UniProtKB/TrEMBL annotation:
<feature type="compositionally biased region" description="Basic and acidic residues">
    <location>
        <begin position="49"/>
        <end position="82"/>
    </location>
</feature>
<feature type="compositionally biased region" description="Basic and acidic residues">
    <location>
        <begin position="1"/>
        <end position="36"/>
    </location>
</feature>
<dbReference type="InterPro" id="IPR036269">
    <property type="entry name" value="Rho_N_sf"/>
</dbReference>
<feature type="region of interest" description="Disordered">
    <location>
        <begin position="1"/>
        <end position="131"/>
    </location>
</feature>
<dbReference type="GO" id="GO:0006353">
    <property type="term" value="P:DNA-templated transcription termination"/>
</dbReference>
<protein>
    <submittedName>
        <fullName>Rho termination factor N-terminal domain-containing protein</fullName>
    </submittedName>
</protein>
<dbReference type="InterPro" id="IPR011112">
    <property type="entry name" value="Rho-like_N"/>
</dbReference>
<feature type="compositionally biased region" description="Basic and acidic residues">
    <location>
        <begin position="101"/>
        <end position="131"/>
    </location>
</feature>
<dbReference type="Pfam" id="PF07498">
    <property type="entry name" value="Rho_N"/>
</dbReference>
<feature type="domain" description="Rho termination factor-like N-terminal">
    <location>
        <begin position="98"/>
        <end position="129"/>
    </location>
</feature>
């Protein structure tokens, strides 16, 4: 797909970009700049054109938790903490993402943090409460 080709975007994404572009043009932004801003906004909100893969079916809560966890790992790396140094987030090895944990593991984490109402929460609610 060459740069600028919009064929991989869904109809909904194209309509959204048109609407955003019109809005910018009404505010006096040039046509070219309005189009660029509109597509940048669509890309930011939806991740670009239609894509195949596991990330498309994740809930917003799960994506938020993954981003937060990634930011924590990056901060640890900048500080020089390696995963083998026993950081609290990395105990147990493997994946550290909340969305990859079982409900029982999330419940234990919520119990450790004394999250109120945890026993009645579903998995996605536990992820949100722990994020």
């Amino acid at each position: 797909m060459p740069r600028g080709d919009k064929s991989k975007y869904s109809d909904k994404q194209q309509r959204k970009a048109e609407h955003i572009e019109e809005s910018y043009e009404k505010r006096g932004v040039s046509e070219k700049e309005a189009e660029a801003r509109a597509w940048a906004t669509v890309n930011k909100q939806s991740g670009g054109g239609e894509r195949k893969g596991s990330g498309r079916n994740k809930s917003e809560t799960a994506k938020r938790a993954d981003r937060k966890d990634s930011a924590h790992r990056a901060a640890d790396a900048r500080k020089g903490d390696s995963p083998n140094k026993g950081s609290a987030r990395n105990k147990g090895g493997g994946s550290t993402s909340l969305s990859d944990m079982t409900r029982d593991e999330l419940m234990q984490k919520a119990r450790d943090r004394d999250v109120k109402g945890r026993s009645r929460m579903r998995k996605d609610e536990l992820i949100k409460a722990l994020s």
